[in-house]
Amino acid sequence: MSLLELERVDKVFGGLAALKGVSFSVEKGSIFGLIGPNGAGKTTLFNVITGVYEPDGGSIRFRGRDIAGERPAVIAAGGIARTFQNIRLFRSMSVEQNVMVAGHHLHQSGMVDALLRTRRYYRDEARLEKKAHELLEVLGLGPLAAEPAGSLPYGSQRRLEIARALMLEPELLLLDEPAAGMNSQEAHELEHQLRFLRSELSLSLVLVEHNMSVVMNVCDFVHVVDHGETIGQGVPEQVKADPRVLAAYLGQEESVPA
Amino acid sequence: MSQFLQQLINGLSLGSIYALIALGYTMVYGVLRLINFAHGEVFMVGAYAGYYAAWLLGVERFEAAGQGFPLYLALLVLAVAMGAAALLGVLVEALAYRPVRSAPRLTPLITAIGVSLLLQNVALLVFSPNPRRYPAILTEVRFEFAGVIVTNVKLTIFVLASLLMVGLHLLIQKTSWGRGARATSANLDAAELMGIDTGQVIRWTFATGSALAAAGGILFGLDQITINPQMGVLTGIKAFVAAVLGGIGNIPGAMLGGILIGLAEQFTAGYLSPDYRDAITFLILIAVLLVKPQGLLGVVRTEKV
Amino acid sequence: MSKSPTLRVVVVATLFVALFLAGVALRANVIEYVQRIVLLAGINIILAVGLNLINGTTGQFSLGHAGFMAIGAYAAAYVGVLLGPLVEGWCGPGLLADGLTLNLALVVGAFFSACAGLLIGIPSLRLRGDYLAVVTLGFGEIIRIVFTNAEFLGSATGYFGDEPAGLREYTSFFWVYVWALLVVVGLYNLTFSQMGRSLVAIREDEIAAEAIATPTTRLKVQAFVISAATAGIAGGLFAHMQAGIRPEDFRFEKSIDMLVMVIIGGLGSISGAVLGGIFVAVTLELMRDLAQYRLVIYALLLVVIMIVRPRGLLGTRELFDTWKKKSGPSQGSRA
What we know:
Shape of chain B: globular
Shape of chain C: globular
Strand order of the largest sheet of chain B: 1-4
Number of helices of chain C: 14
Number of helices of chain B: 12
Oligomer: heterotrimer
Order of helices and strands of chain B: HHHHHEEEHHHHEHHH
Largest interface: B-C, 42 and 41 residues
Strand content of chain C: under 5%
Largest sheet of chain B: 2 strands, antiparallel
Number of strands of chain C: 0
Strand content of chain B: under 5%
Structural class of chain C: mainly alpha
Distance between the termini of chain C: 6 Å
Helix content of chain B: over 70%
């Protein structure tokens, strides 16, 4: 059984088919690349997997259970975390708070504990704080913990979104263009961090990414969509050589597979 | 049966007034995603503008002489009130809403509440809190069929409101402003990128919505006999509920919602108790939010993520 | 507050004694007019800090808190009249009986307001957007109509309790400020906890909050219910302050007063709400002769603040932020 299995997923927006029968499986422990030209439906796939949109057809199974149509918070609590293409941080909160807020499952104490500031409450807060700081260190944001999230440079904001998603202790992490806006040095660092996450946190990753060198370097398996349809899949070398994939990318200079 | 027909007629005329006001809410919400709380006050100011215009045109002399107010003067009153309200709407947009357009969501909302409050309380000072009898710019004539009373006032309300709504429909479907408004409503930023002067579109949206509300104000005055500076509060809420019921941002929805709210109110007043006529709107609002928050004719908006 | 339980008890006891002595001193030395302003300021603090939880911290706009205040006021008044003689029967007349009756009445009032909050909150808070503003606006109007028509609560003339005792003036400086303290500290603790963080997250970006498994609807409803309950407590204190309440006491203007309190200080700031509550209590009295201009001034204030300084005086900051930054590494462990 694969960790995540999509079977003939459809999504229609006002009569326009955004996804047409997309199927793929993500194996546990893999880094899975999802590529395709702009508007191909990659982000829409993320949105149906995470419950932002309800699919109009097909099934989405996570650890064998159909999660299609569940609420985003339920899916997130169930083990699928994500980042957003157009960064969605809690801008007025500090970096550290942005991460801590995602630690609901570590915070067992209730409202009464918070009101009365009981031992349990302090214990949970300490636990959250510790975990948040660990994650910030992993992503190289440790020194920025007290800064307001909105004031960080772009690349750091992207990494902070990853740290926040990791606070959920997910099994599967969906990253929407994590390397966007990063220079080659930063992108290279990101590759290391992604491999580290997989090995150290035994995480499986799905990546939507336009930076082909990142995709080809870290992904075990690549799935290509265009106009809402699967047009190719396989290991990076296969996909690179696939004529349909090349055709779809033709004229999109910055994203021609490297 | 005659009671049913009576309530139906009263409900249709009241509902068409709500529909006229609801259009303004729904149009502004369509382009700016803003609940224009001040719209109820624009409606009130429109009613007062009509009151003063009629007075200046000598409605009292006609009344004293037992003559009817000439039709062309009545239309002039309507035009003056619609113009005054349109001006007020545009001014409110320019002075209060435009400076906060790009601010976080709550800022424009609070601004709108502030403007509503300001207009209402300035009106209380200027017009005095006492209700005023609305001038008879239309002399009432009653017809009776089988126990059902129909007045020319109710008929006029229904016909005039329908004409205005048809006019609005043509404006939106056939003019370049209408095309711009539809585009802006679909996506303000994209419309701007396509070279649409969204500032202009927004100004015209406020002007048109406000003018319709003023027409509603005059009709309300004729229907309810008196007006007061706080008439916009409850009527405004009801019209907004009408817009939500029809599907906020949806123009035919606002018309349908207005009529339905008017009918619901009249039937509640007629068959249950007049005490509950205001409460029914509120219950409808709660029910809509629970069962069909996108409204009868609205579509579920998928937020871009 | 300290982590040590003994120290906490000492601090709380000292505060209570101090409040009690301050109340005695106030009664002896200050004219009644000023006493009234001081009580109203305390009630306003409860209202403002409570409203701030939903309007400021959570970013969901309520325009009908006067309605929740009215429910709390009527319920507390009714229960106070009912229980007063019974409680005096148990423990004899005196401060003890008065305090007991008042607090029982307040709790009942808060309970009823909370229930109303639940009924209003569930349909309107499931959705994103500004529906809460309109629903609460309508609710505030409807609830006034209900009380105006409720004969057993005196209809439009208002509720004064039955003869001979009637609605008693149980509200004192001590109890107003005990409750103000409880509400301020309680909501401060909630705001600076995982719940508060989540509420701010909802305000900042509801979609992102959902993506990190935040139960957004449940939290919004909880915050709203708590906020409604505090308005109910304020209403109960208000009812037992003047030995009579009328539906007119809870008009839309009252909701606007509350809005001004939280906006002047800065939406999302508890200390700002406290200052705003005091500000409104004082200016209301100062502007008594200008009553008809008051709302014009408030309305102008709202619009101008929104255009010039939309975050209010303090923004979402607290008065003691600078101090807190030195004392601890995180928001959560600072309190």
